[in-house]
Amino acid sequence: MTARFVSKRNLEFLLYEVFDLLSLTKHAYYREHDRQMFTMVLETSLKMAEETFLPILAEMDRQPPELAAGTVKVHPAVRKILRDFGEGGWIGSIHPESVGGFQLPLMLDNACSFVFSAANYSAIIYPGLSKGAAGLIINFGSQELIDAYIPKLLSGEWQGTMALTEPQAGSSLTDLTTTAEPTANGHYKMRGRKIFTSAGEHDGVDNIIHLMLAKIPGGPPGVKGISLFVVPKKRIENGKLVSNDVAASEVYHKMGYRGAPILGLSIGENNDCRGYLVGEPHQGLRYMFQMMNEARLGVGMGAAAIASAAYYTALDYTRQRLQGRKPTEKDPSKPQTPIIEHADVKRMLLFQKAVVEGSLSLLMQCSYYADLVKVLPDGDEKRRYELLLDLLTPIAKTYPSEMGIQSVSQSLQCLGGYGYCDDFPVEQYYRDARIHPIHEGTTGIHGMDLLGRKVTIKDGAAFQLYLAEIRQTLERARAISTFQPLANQLEAALTSLEQVTTHLIGLSQSAGTEHFLADATLYLELFGVITMAWQWLIQGLSAHAALEKSPAETDFYQGKLHTLRYFFRYELPKTLALTSILMDTSSLTVELDTKFLG
Amino acid sequence: MTARFVSKRNLEFLLYEVFDLLSLTKHAYYREHDRQMFTMVLETSLKMAEETFLPILAEMDRQPPELAAGTVKVHPAVRKILRDFGEGGWIGSIHPESVGGFQLPLMLDNACSFVFSAANYSAIIYPGLSKGAAGLIINFGSQELIDAYIPKLLSGEWQGTMALTEPQAGSSLTDLTTTAEPTANGHYKMRGRKIFTSAGEHDGVDNIIHLMLAKIPGGPPGVKGISLFVVPKKRIENGKLVSNDVAASEVYHKMGYRGAPILGLSIGENNDCRGYLVGEPHQGLRYMFQMMNEARLGVGMGAAAIASAAYYTALDYTRQRLQGRKPTEKDPSKPQTPIIEHADVKRMLLFQKAVVEGSLSLLMQCSYYADLVKVLPDGDEKRRYELLLDLLTPIAKTYPSEMGIQSVSQSLQCLGGYGYCDDFPVEQYYRDARIHPIHEGTTGIHGMDLLGRKVTIKDGAAFQLYLAEIRQTLERARAISTFQPLANQLEAALTSLEQVTTHLIGLSQSAGTEHFLADATLYLELFGVITMAWQWLIQGLSAHAALEKSPAETDFYQGKLHTLRYFFRYELPKTLALTSILMDTSSLTVELDTKFLG
After folding, report:
1. pLDDT tens, residue by residue, B414-469
2. N or C: which end of chain A has fewer CB within 10 A?
3. DSSP string covering B366-379, please?
């Protein structure tokens, strides 16, 4: 059966019809795979998600995590999931065979992550973090580190983490104060505090391996002095695991996403914490960004996934729930209608479908770019995908995160009072989803990243590539008469985006950086809406082609075409307001004296 | 001290400077009151809210309500609050002295409700429901009912409720099936099921008095056959309380607003439930609407109040939290800046202030209208305020509810990761606030009420009055040079609203009711933004006048002027998108075949 938290058909549509997963197998790294293998992997993920992840969704949410005897008791299934994931090759899925990995394309791996996240977002966090931590060691660590940590991370016996944030350094990593003092024995003596470390301590594994940012005393100030370390909870001494002086100091009580505990860590309180440098000193942030960029796509994926699960809950509910009658039906003795037939409910559902499937489309495209960056030889083509991926990452993280919240909220609204109660999982989705605009860089940070860095670097090379990509799609669209008005509408929005961009860059020269970046969040929002319109046009073109070719699966493809039309009819016009706001030259916020706020 | 969940200064500004609470005292009903009395009432509410309500905000949230031995154990403070409220005259505050009330203007009473709701929304629900239930009995019930129920309701010994919703009749009240069979003894035999009844059962009172909608067999079909009954949990027989066969059948586990239990009720399972008709048969919905309209303002008030509490939490946090530096400051050794100084954070805070204070302004205006409707003699003036109040009620309910959620979400975002944890109350506010677009009529229902009824009744008389009111404000604004561009901007938006309205009414004739109402929710949103712009202009004019008159309290008034500018700069442009969407003639949603949704 098709699980009703994701659409397998839609995943296949994106993997094989809209983008081209199979084309990756012509590259040496992915040569061993074929469609049959990909199908098996995706189907296994659906089966595991439905049978193992979904049934414990509510259970994992209900008990707030408590710190006792130095650890956090998590749901007993966590240990089993990690071991099963290890045995099934899911933690090493994207990693090289040489270290025990499976060399799966990131695109397919992310499609599977989407499936797992839709079933139970908290549960996938554990193996997901280990996968990311292992990636850093594999790519930048010494053979010694690889030998010491990778087998146990990939087997699911040990947990990997990302330990970045500190009490005084959240968005501002430049202000990290955790120190790593070199010793004569090759390792470093670690000392400091970390907060908000996901899965930073729990009883579902035998050891926790922190990939930790810290500063080597005497290094350059700011982000240039950040290095990356492996800091295990228990270190290996003479073949045995001994305590490494990393203590869980607090556990946070979160509103949602409660199945995965988030910890505060105290490092080296007894002056006996050893860290092992990954790669070169002072290169930590660069290394970490490799993981963070993947993690950012992962956040987008998780956000779209939760919205997907909420959408299908709302879809099923609105089909069954009878309430009210068509406005033209005045006879109260006539039977009530399923609420899905009310225009307002249809609009809410189309919105959810547009957000879920549009976001997933962008994320699949970005994953495809990431795969190409991984396997292409150095040169123009690789550089092109690198630039596009860099530019699109803040959007692929933020649009699903911000609009995912709205989408889940609309799912909840479709269920009325029941949506607010735990009879249905939507209220949990609503709580779970709220984390996404916060972790892996807040929306505000991504706005500044997009406008202040990605759009302007290399004289706007990435931005020009982005415009060229969309205009290629527009060209294809104009060849089909029913698509022409849509192409014209998106072309107009794109022209506005160019004008806004020119205007803002002009502002950076005339008024300074602060004015330039003041509304970067709204610029990101504008960019997001336009990017989604593009994704819907891409999907619409594939749907149109499929319908031309064969009359099968009409409903699926018509669904794509209607949602495309929905997006251009109801969502794309938001660019009118955003353009107007961004072209306004009054610098209200920058100049505001904050004492006026009350 | 000024409590940091509301601004007392802002309440006074609205009560005395923007609108004119004192002018009500020239009407006989309010003659006994004066400014000193009003001040004392408001100050008492602030003190009680801070000392009694706020300290138990989190406690009331933490334990989900469970049904045991036929009742729900609520926080022990609930009993005390109800009795204190009774003794202090708060439950009878707006009711006539003749029945033990205090004859307080609704405007001041709502200001106090705002204060209590901001401190603890769940806690104010209990006395608030009793106040509403008492109002129905006082206005429409017999002297016998008044004598039997009002004293105990107003003293806080008994709990009043509104029992409307049934499993098959939520938004569609026409489909109620609870029956009331007349008996020879004057009472009715009640039988049926109710769901989602707030405070429908709990151990903080000695009796529960349901104001219940039901149908008398043989009456007209649909809403015309609905009657209103008093249905006590325990009825009075020979001066004693005996069980009246109303059983709590289930308690809902809600995401938020958890301090007030919501019940399912089983009525007359043992064929021994007596109901007492209020007023005339078949007039129940009309009576209930009196309570519902007040309750709808109450929901708007609660929504704005929660957003207020979240705003002040965010304001205090962003003033203290150091993170990052100005974009122009590249030296990482310089101290970090309070995040309130970042332009993006200022924008988020201005948004919250705009939503909170704009909503409250509209709600005070509506309350003022409600007071005038209550005390004016029949005639044109009264009719005028009735029409304006009718028109504005769906907006005063929905704008604070929908935008309150966004506002609290932005408060949460200001706190970053901490906003997602229960170290601060914002995560609770986020959960609590989500109820508001659902209860007392969903946003979709209010959209249809506004467009399908309020805007069109009496040939658009209410809409014309609304336009005239705003244009009067515009005239005042144009007299001040700095206000002229704002007046022009609002005039343009108003013209758009007229065009959209004409267009949609035309659609009702050319394409039918379903097309006409398909986007009523978006029409309500458009109407809401314009109404808020008006409220900000009104407030701005008062602030301007105050600054002209005296140089005192500059910060407060400058805050108003900056928020006015914020609204016109960042919020009013949303009308551009909404107008474009609403003028589009393609009927995408109405014609969508729902099988395409997946």
Report:
1. 999 999 999 999 999 999 999 999 999 999 999 999 999 999 989 999 999 999 99
2. N
3. HHHHHHHHHHSPSS
Return the number of other C-beta atoms located less than 10 Å from residue B139's C-beta: 15
* Mean per-residue pLDDT of chain B: 96
- The DSSP-derived string for B344-391 is HHHHHHHHHHHHHHHHHHHHHHHHHHHHHHHHSPSSHHHHHHHHHHHH
Query: Is B93:B105 a contact under the CB 8 Å cutoff?
Result: no
B482 CA to chain A: closest CA distance, Å? Answer: 14
Domain span at residue A500? 443-588
Q: Is the pLDDT of residue B136 over 70?
A: yes
% of chain A at pLDDT higher than 70: 99
The number of folded domains in chain B is 1
Give the up-direction half-sphere exposure of residue A74: CA atoms within 13 A in the CB hemisphere: 29
Given a cut of 50, the residues of chain A with pLDDT beneath it are 1-3
**Chain A residue whose CA is closest to B8:** A598
A7: helix, coil or strand? coil
Q: What are the pLDDT digits (tens) for B550-581? A: 888 999 999 999 999 999 999 999 999 999 99
Task: Say which residues have a Cβ less than 8 Å from residue B383's Cβ, sequence separation at least 6.
Answer: none
Instruction: Work out the minimum CA distance from B558 to partner chain A, whole angstroms.
Output: 6
Rg, chain B, Cα only: 24
Q: Is B329 marked active-site?
A: no
Q: What is the pLDDT of residue A64?
A: 80
pLDDT of residue A328: 86
Q: What is the pTM of this model?
A: 0.98
Q: Is A403 within the bounds of a domain?
A: no
Question: Which residues of chain A lie closer than 8 angstroms to B521, CB-CB?
Answer: 344, 347
- Confirm if B204 and B159 have CB atoms less than 8 A apart: yes
Which pLDDT does position B1 carry in this prediction?
41
CA distance to partner chain A, nearest, from residue B537 (Å): 17
pLDDT tier at B537, thresholds 50, 70, 90: very high
Which of A174, A409, A442 faces B416 most closely, judged by CB atoms?
A442
In a domain, A481, yes or no: yes
- Between chain A and chain B, how many beta carbons pairs sit less than 8 Å apart? 283
ipTM, two decimals = 0.98
Do the chains contact at B413 and A332, CB–CB below 8 Å?
no
Q: Report CA B509 to chain centroid distance, whole Å.
A: 34
Contact A405 B405 (CB under 8 A): no
A219 touches chain B (CB under 8 A): no
Read off the pLDDT of residues B268-279 as tens digits, 9 standing for 90 and up.
Answer: 999 999 999 999
Interface of A with B in 400-429 (CB under 8 A): 405, 409, 412-413, 416-417, 419-423, 427
Q: Report A:277-336 residues touching B (Cβ under 8 A).
A: 312, 315, 319, 322-328, 332-333, 336
Distances (CA, A) of A580 to A486, A523, A577, B570, B573: 21, 11, 5, 9, 7
DSSP H stretches of helix in A321-379: 343-375
In angstroms, what CA-CA distances link A542 with A556, B38, B120? 12, 67, 52
Task: Please compute the mean of the pLDDT values over residues B239-249 and round it to a whole number.
Answer: 96
Chain B nearest C-alpha distance from A40 (Å): 23
**Residue A543 has what DSSP assignment?**
H
Pairing of strands B179-182, B71-72: unpaired
